Amino acid sequence: MEITKEAEFVTDFYGGRPYLSGMEVVQNWLESQGDKLLHPRMAEVKSALGNETKLEEILSVFNTNGNNEPVIGNWMLLECSMDAAKLAGTWTQFQVSFDTWKTSVQFTPIHTQLYRDKKLVAEPDFVEPYQVTTKRTKNKGNSFFKAYQAIKSGAKFGFTMTFPDDICTKIAGRGKDKEILPDPEKSRACAEAVMDKMCIIGLGAYRLRFGKFKYV
Q1: Pairing mode, if any, of strands 179-182 and 169-172?
Q2: What is the pLDDT of residues 89-138, one digit of tens each?
Q3: Side-chain half-sphere CA neighbours of 130 within 13 A
Q4: pLDDT, tens digit (0-9, with 9 covering 90-100), for 170-179
Q5: Phi/psi at 99 (5° precision)
Q6: Taking a C-beta distance cutoff of 8 angstroms, is the pair 5, 215 a contact?
Q7: d(CA 40, CA 43)
Q8: CA 172, CA 170: separation in Å to the nearest integer?
Q9: pTM for this model (two decimals)
Q10: What are the boundaries of each domain within the chain?
Q11: In the predicted structure, residue 51 carries a pLDDT above the cut 90
C-alpha cells in the first residue's frame, strides 16, 4: 500500500549535513552571498572562507543531488516517521511496534527536490548563524558558533510512503478456524496517523523549532 503527499514548509528548513573539505559548490555559494556576510553576526562565517578546517567545525549544509541542488533524502523522511510513530502511539493505538514500523516502511524517491511557485529551488536561500551554549554546571556554560544553510518557508516537496497491508492484522474465525489476516484499513489508518505527526516532528537541523510542514 502507499500514500503520496505534497507538503509545504511552514517554517524555514535548515541543512543538517556537516560540511566536508573540498565542497567547492558550498564555498562558491558562500562567496556569492556578498554583503550578507558583512553583518557582524556573520563575522565567523566570513572569516572561515578559505579555511576548510574552520568550515568543517561551524557549517552545516543541505544534502544535494548530482546537480548540487538541495534535496530531502528518503532516510530523513524515515527518521522523521520513526519519531512520529512514537508520538502517534502506534503500539497502543494499532499494535505496531517501533521495530516493525522501522523495518516495514519505505519512502520514495531517494532524493526529493524542493519547489517554490512551481520553480525548482536550486540553491539555499541564506545562511543562518547561531551561538550555541551547552550547560556544564549550574552557573557556567560552554558556547560555540554554528551556521546553517537554510531555505525559507513556503518551499514545497512531495513523497510517497509505502507500507505493507499487514502491518496491522485482525483475527477471523474461532478455534481451529482462527486466522490472523491483514487489516488494510487499520494499516492505512496507522500510516496516516504517523504522517500527521511527521508535520510536527519536522525535517533537517533544529527539528524542534524548524523544518515543520503541512500537507497541501
Answers
A1: antiparallel
A2: 999 999 999 999 999 999 999 999 999 999 999 999 999 988 766 666 66
A3: 16
A4: 888 777 777 8
A5: -65, -40
A6: yes
A7: 5
A8: 7
A9: 0.87
A10: 2-215
A11: no
